[in-house]
Each structure stands twice: as C-alpha cells, then as structure tokens.
C-alpha cells in the first residue's frame, strides 16, 4: 500500500521535534528543516523516483511500495542526492551509505517517529486509497484539487 506524508505548514511552530525524533530513530535525520517548515521525502512512485532511476548500483530498491537504500550496495556516489527533487537523500557517515525517508517502514513502528513526535499535529499519513476517498468527497474535492494542482506545478 503506497503511503504519503502530508505537512500542514500553517500549523507548524518550528519546534524541530520531528527532526529530532527522526535522528533518534535512525541515527541521522532523514528530514530537513527549512526556515519555516520541515521537508520530507516526497515518496515518489518507485518506477519514477529520480533517486532510484539514477543509482548506478540499483541501491535504491522498492519493497511494498516504499523505496529503501540498500546500504551494502550504496557506493556513496551521491548521484541520488543530486537527482532528488527536494534534496532529501542524506548521508549516514557511520553506515557509509545514503539514507532516505521510508516513513519508518523498516522499524517496528506503526506510526513514523516524526509523526508521533509532532505535538502540533502538523504531520499526517495517508494511503493513496485514503486520498482517493477524500477526493471523491465533495466537501474536500476543491481543497484536494488545488493541492494536487500545486503539487503538479512543482514536479
């Protein structure tokens, strides 16, 4: 099941709890803080993800709809970092590999560490199916249409 994270920038108080929780969970933060809101991996479609497509060793692989970095296959060429449209591939110097957000899928967590840590309820997790259901709900249709239009303009 394909899962996405949605950030409500109007609610963010810039506390950095999500960044800290990610670093605590993975050893390195897989999210970055801009001047106003945190930025996360866009969870691109596995067949279209620029980071996976450019990797010369195929170290970025899909499992259950989520892209993971195979630390053994990563040669730290950094091409994935250049290709990522939001710059969300990070280097884990200790593991000598790149890392990317997986929404904590490789952990025992049910909810990603960043979402759980967000006291302002800024971060939300949705499946593609959830978003389709919301899209068909006329009360949310206009809001989602505008959000999708803004997203499409940035791709």
UniProtKB/TrEMBL annotation:
Keyword Membrane: no
GO molecular function: 4 iron, 4 sulfur cluster binding; metal ion binding; oxidoreductase activity
Boundaries of every 4Fe-4S ferredoxin-type domain copy: 3-33, 65-94
Keyword field: 4Fe-4S, Iron, Iron-sulfur, Metal-binding
PROSITE patterns registered for this protein in UniProt: 4FE4S_FER_1, 4FE4S_FER_2
PANTHER family xref list: PROTEIN NRFC (PTHR43177), PROTEIN NRFC HOMOLOG (PTHR43177:SF3)
Superkingdom field: Archaea
UniProt protein name: 4Fe-4S dicluster domain-containing protein
């Amino acid at each position: 099941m394909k899962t996405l994270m949605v950030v409500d920038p109007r609610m963010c108080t810039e506390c950095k709890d999500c960044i800290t929780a990610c670093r605590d969970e993975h050893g390195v933060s897989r999210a970055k803080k801009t001047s106003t809101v945190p930025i996360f991996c866009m969870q691109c479609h596995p067949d279209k993800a620029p980071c996976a497509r450019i990797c010369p060793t195929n170290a970025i692989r899909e499992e259950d709809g989520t892209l993971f970095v195979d630390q053994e296959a990563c040669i730290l060429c950094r091409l994935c970092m250049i290709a990522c449209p939001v710059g969300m591939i990070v280097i884990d110097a200790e593991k000598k590999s790149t890392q990317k957000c997986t929404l904590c899928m490789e952990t025992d967590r049910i909810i990603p560490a960043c979402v759980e840590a967000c006291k302002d309820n800024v971060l939300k997790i949705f499946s593609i199916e959830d978003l389709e259901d919301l899209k068909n709900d006329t009360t949310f249709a206009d809001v989602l249409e505008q959000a999708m239009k803004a997203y499409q303009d940035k791709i």
